[in-house]
């Protein structure tokens, strides 16, 4: 079974480019793409019964339609604890607003904050957070 990481972003071009970059730098991981917080939330809930199927890493954009990143994080507060304990959640956003960075720090289960564009250096830093 291959390791998975979930990439959640509404921008299809960004998701495609990021998937290529992630594949080159983290070849042992399969990148699974999601367009919004609701679709990834539903997938996480589906996988929670078999916790070993949960992704090791979740890269989460903040500004998306349907359910944005902040709304997803609020839902995850009351979701099964295995999700918050097992999944390394990293904000991946184009927002450079200090209030977004500060808000991300209020979620104890957020493991990092990366600003777009995603770079090889960012991925090297992410590697250090993975098991």
Per-chain topology:
Layout: E1 3-8, H1 12-25, E2 29-34, H2 37-47, E3 57-60, H3 69-77, H4 81-86, E4 88-93, H5 98-104, E5 110-115, H6 120-127
Parallel strand pairs: 1-2, 1-3, 3-4, 4-5
Pfam families: Response_reg
Keywords: Phosphoprotein
Modified residues (4-aspartylphosphate): 61
Q: TL;DR?
A:
This protein is of the alpha/beta class and 131 residues long. It is 42% helix and 21% strand.
Structure report:
It comes from Croceitalea vernalis. InterPro entries: Bact_response_regulator, CheY-like_superfamily, Sig_transdc_resp-reg_receiver. Pfam families: Response_reg. This is Response regulator. Keywords: Phosphoprotein. The protein has 131 residues and is an alpha/beta fold. The chain has one domain: Response regulator (Rossmann fold). It is 42% helix and 21% strand. The protein has a five-stranded parallel β-sheet. Helix 1 links the parallel strand 1 and strand 2. The longest helix is centred in the first third of the chain and has 14 residues. The protein is globular. The model has no long low-confidence stretch (mean pLDDT 95).
Note the main attributes of this structure:
5-stranded parallel β-sheet, Response regulator, 131 residues, Sig_transdc_resp-reg_receiver, single chain, Rossmann fold, 6 helices, alpha/beta
> Rounded to an integer, what's the Rg over CA atoms?
13 Å
Low-confidence stretches: none
Overall geometry comes to: globular
Query: What is the architecture at the second tier of CATH?
Result: 3-Layer(aba) Sandwich
- Count up the domains: 1
Domain Response regulatory: 4-131
Protein name: Response regulator
Modified residues (4-aspartylphosphate): 61
Organism: Croceitalea vernalis
């Amino acid at each position: 079974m291959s390791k998975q990481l979930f990439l959640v972003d509404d921008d299809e071009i960004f998701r495609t480019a990021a998937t290529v970059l992630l594949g080159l730098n983290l070849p042992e991981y399969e990148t699974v793409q999601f367009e919004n917080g609701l679709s990834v939330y539903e997938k996480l809930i589906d996988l929670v019964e078999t916790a070993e199927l949960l992704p090791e890493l979740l890269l989460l954009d903040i500004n998306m339609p349907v359910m944005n990143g902040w709304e997803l994080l609020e839902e995850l507060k009351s979701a099964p604890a295995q999700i918050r304990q097992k999944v390394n959640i990293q904000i991946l956003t184009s927002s450079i607003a200090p209030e977004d960075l500060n808000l991300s720090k209020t979620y104890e289960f957020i493991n990092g904050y990366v600003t777009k564009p995603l770079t090889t250096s960012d991925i090297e830093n992410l590697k250090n957070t993975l098991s």
